[in-house]
Structures are given as C-alpha cells and as structure tokens.
Amino acid sequence: MKVFKNKKIYTYKETFRTAVCFFNGLRFIKKAKKDKVINKAFVERIMLGVTEVNGCTLCSYQHTGVALKAGLSREEIRALLDGELQTVKEHEIIGVLFGKHVADQRGLFDKEAYDRMVKEYGEERSLGVLGAVRIIMFTNIIGIMGGVLYDTLTLKNKKLGLFIHELIRLPLLIIMMPIAFITFLGLQLLSIERLKLGYKA
Fold this sequence. Notes:
- The chain has about 200 residues and is mainly alpha-helical.
- The chain has a domain at about 10-140: AhpD-like, CATH 1.20.1290.10.
- Helix content is about 75%, strand content about 0%.
- It contains 9 helices and no strands.
- The chain has helices spanning about 10-35, 40-55, 55-70, 75-80, 95-105, 110-120, 125-155, 160-190, 195.
C-alpha cells in the first residue's frame, strides 16, 4: 500500500462543494458506462491519479485492488501512485491529467482544460471522466478523514489540530449530505453550466 505523507486537508466549505459535485458525478458516470464510452480500467487510472494528488492512503489501498481486477498491472498502479504517467495509454492521458488538475485545484477546474478534453473525447465521454473525478474526490476526503482519525488513535498523528478538524468533519458530513443532495437537485433546474460542472468563474 502506498503511504502518503502529504495529505490534502479540505475545508468544510470545500467538502460541501465536493459532496454536491459527487451527486452530479454519479449521474455522469452512470450514463457514460451505460453508453459504453468509458471503461473500468480508464476509470481506475483516473481515480489513482486523483488519489495520488490528494494523498489518500486508504483510497490507494482500495483502488489498487480494484485496478488489478480491471486489468492494470502492478507496475502501472505503482507508477500512477508515484505521480508518473508514462504507463498511461496515449488516448487516456488527457483524462488522467484532467483528473489530476481538478484535484490540484481542490475540486474546481479551468474551463479551458475541460474544453480541451471535450475536443479530444466528445462531451459524453468527458462528462464520464468528470464523473469519475467527482466520485474519487469525495471518497478521498472521507478516506483522508478516516486515515487521520486512525493515525491519531494509533499515535502516528501528533497534530491535535488536524485530529480535531477531521473529528468535527464526521458529524458535519452526516448533516451535509441531505443538504448537498437538495442543492444538487436545485442546480438541475438551472441552466448555468459553471454551477453544474463546477469550474472556476
């Protein structure tokens, strides 16, 4: 299992925004898989790339197993978790790079980066990539929270402030999720692309 020393710690506001985007992500990837414009191996490459940027050890462990079942080799998985992309297939590199860009921007992204992906993949496949990114971003936040709490209980984490931050996030998530879902539903009634996709203003 890849152990990351530098985990990205998201604010409560960023957590809520990521939760709203998570519901959109489920919708996007479900349609992309149904229409067979994105496959499991590609999804796992995207998710491993995002996980590397966010530094979620628990997610790296989980997705290593899933990626192996999807057909990725141990060498490719190791390379992706080390931030190396030379093993990624040429026609998938833009999607993996886009995912890393979203993670680097803490869940937001540049419209130009998305437009470039649409030009390469078409809109439906691009939405599938975005869906994969949205799902793993949210699960990374949960995984990092769980990792910090576990590390504190096992005396590996010495930062009390970090422990308190993640401890507060746990009940907040329970409160946030129904509100995030209602927000997601509300956004579907609007025709503002920026809010639906979640890119920078």
